[in-house]
Amino acid sequence: MKATEVPAIAGAYLFEPTSYADERGFFCRTFDADVVRSVGLDPNAFVQDSVSRSVRGVLRGLHLRSGAGESKLVRCSYGQIFDVVVDLRPESPTYRNHASFELSGDTQVTLYIPAGCAHGFQALTETADTSYRIDRPHDPAEDVTIAFDDPELAIPWPLPVTSMSQRDREAPSLAEVLKHRES
């Protein structure tokens, strides 16, 4: 497994596994504590694993946690997703940058998203399973959502949105969220 820094988002990493394929399919390690530790992250800090299943065109996000935030490892375990990270850490050298990635079950690449960054994704295949490893128990009182189509971010979502939660549909703009965080 190889760890690669994401230049557009300070502190973000892609963890690319080595895949072994044969006539049966493939095998790869999707988490390696030593590799995670090698980039300065504590592999024991992750306390919850979750999975979501989405159909083609579903958009989830942009989601953020208030308070101490939450770091997470995100991987598309089946299918393919267009994944987006937005750096909302005012002290970060990449503040307000965003980066996008195509994550897929074929590659099993894992994206590490630092606390203070917003995250969202869109399913690109008929079925897409997205796995999360999170460093804090979920507290719905800390949930923050930003409009996926905020013109300031201008994220180039690849497909028309076929479905999203009511919370995501009614999400405020980035400017509104930042104004609220500063007050």
**Low-confidence blocks of residues:** none
* Sheet with the most strands: spatial strand order: 1-2-10-7-12-5
Q: What structural class do helix, strand and pairing data support?
A: mainly beta
Task: Give helix and strand order, one letter per element, not per position.
Answer: EEEEHEEEEEEEEEHH
Q: What is the 3D shape?
A: globular
Using only CA atoms, what is the Rg?
A: 16 Å
Task: Note down, in words, how this protein is organized.
The protein is mostly beta strands and 183 residues long. The chain has three helices and 13 strands. The chain has helices at residues 33-38, 166-169, 174-182; strands at 2-5, 13-16, 19-22, 25-28, 48-55, 59-65, 72-78, 80-87, 98-104, 110-113, 117-123, 127-134, 143-145. A six-stranded antiparallel beta sheet has the order 1-2-10-7-12-5, with no helix packed on it. The protein has a five-stranded antiparallel beta sheet with strand order 9-8-11-6-13, with no helix packed on it. A hairpin with a 7-residue loop joins strand 1 and strand 2 (13-16). It is globular, with a radius of gyration of 16 Å. The mean pLDDT is 95.
